[in-house]
User: Which sequence fits this backbone?
């Protein structure tokens, strides 16, 4: 099957590879030199979603690996055209079934060795444990995408680090009562930390090397959570919506971290190139912001004045997802990694969603549904839907050219 696919797509991949080398932007930087051993194999869990598809697309552009992608079979944004034709896709729902039922995956792992395994889709520790049992002695490195939510279930040490959470702060409370209390408050953070603990224990028992990245709220192109696009559209059409953007009181003064999806991929390959393993890194922009500061920066990029509502009884907010504040990224920076400038990232992201408004109709309609459900009153829902429909049928240049004429903040 792989040989057939290579034959069919050889010319396409050659062109893509040539374009990648000659027209690289900050979104798609060349992969590191350590990844140049031709036709080795990589296994990606969840490479069809937001972060995973960004990594897989980078791999496709370089055309240096046979890529095996394991997912439930959903394709988001343009991933069915951008990703699916260039990978070997194995359908497997690891979260809801034993791996024994994923016969294609079992056969694949039995017959192959993988230079790297990239895991973007494991949320439960038992699933990770089962995957490691299958893949021990089958990979050089297991890359696990974790979250800054793990600090929510640990002892709070931010006061010792100028308000930032360091990698070494991932220490659970001593008492069982406090551990249970925090775990109940943030089940996701607990399960992600349990996943990290599974990786470490597996390594100590002689299992495969690992690399862990702890991500704060991720922003970028093709976000299938649609969080940032919801805010972009709220700001973009603010003159019509006329609803101030909600900023809940409990996060009004909370500065948190964000990370650019392209930086996640860059950091993975940077650390691999350095030969780093059995370690964990926070990754984020250098800039830390309150929700209001984040949204104000977004409104400046879009060139649209907005107001904020700090008093709404039932606030609808999509960021931030943590309460412990920002993460310290000095460890990653000391390795030589330089995050993308925050404002440059916003510019690239907004440009993408301006185009996606016309090209990604299904996802656009999902965002419109979010706004009509949580922001715009029922009495104006039909009016807003007609407004969006009218704009979507205009020439692309017309609406956004008009928006560029607005006064900058």
Assistant:
């Amino acid at each position: 099957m792989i040989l057939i696919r290579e034959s069919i797509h050889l010319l396409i991949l050659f062109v893509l590879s040539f374009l990648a080398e000659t027209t690289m932007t900050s979104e798609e930087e060349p992969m590191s030199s350590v990844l140049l051993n031709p036709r080795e194999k990589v296994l990606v869990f969840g490479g069809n979603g937001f972060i995973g598809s960004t990594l897989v697309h980078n791999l496709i552009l370089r055309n240096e690996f046979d890529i095996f992608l394991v997912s439930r079979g959903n394709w988001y944004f343009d991933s069915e055209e951008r990703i699916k034709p260039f990978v070997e896709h194995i359908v497997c729902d690891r979260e809801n079934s034993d791996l024994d039922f994923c016969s294609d995956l079992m056969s694949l792992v039995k017959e192959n060795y993988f230079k790297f395994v990239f895991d973007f889709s494991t949320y439960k520790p038992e699933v990770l444990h089962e995957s490691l049992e299958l893949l021990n002695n089958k990979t050089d490195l297991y890359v696990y995408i974790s979250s800054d939510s793990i600090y929510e279930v640990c002892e709070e040490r931010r006061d010792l680090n100028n308000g930032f959470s360091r990698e070494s702060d991932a220490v659970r409370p001593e008492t069982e009562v406090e551990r249970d209390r925090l775990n109940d408050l943030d089940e996701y953070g607990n399960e992600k930390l349990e996943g990290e603990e599974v990786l470490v224990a597996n390594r100590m028992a002689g299992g495969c090397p690992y690399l862990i990245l702890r991500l704060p709220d991720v922003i970028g192109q093709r976000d299938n959570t649609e969080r940032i696009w919801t805010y972009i559209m709220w700001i973009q059409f603010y003159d019509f919506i006329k609803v101030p953007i909600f900023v809940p009181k409990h996060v009004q003064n909370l500065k948190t971290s964000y990370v650019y999806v392209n930086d996640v991929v860059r950091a993975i390959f940077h650390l691999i190139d350095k030969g780093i393993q059995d370690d964990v890194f926070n990754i984020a922009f250098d800039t830390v912001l309150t929700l209001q500061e984040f949204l104000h920066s977004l409104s400046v990029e879009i060139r649209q004045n907005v107001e904020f509502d700090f008093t709404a009884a039932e606030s609808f907010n999509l960021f931030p997802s943590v309460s412990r504040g920002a993460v310290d990224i000095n460890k990653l920076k000391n390795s030589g990694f330089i995050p993308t400038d925050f404002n440059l990232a916003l510019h690239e992201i907004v440009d993408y969603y301006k185009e996606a408004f016309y090209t990604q109709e299904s996802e656009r309609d999902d965002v419109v549904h979010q706004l009509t459900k949580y922001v715009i009153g029922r009495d104006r829902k039909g009016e807003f839907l007609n407004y969006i429909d009218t704009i979507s049928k205009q020439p692309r240049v017309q609406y956004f050219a008009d928006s560029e004429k607005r006064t900058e903040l």
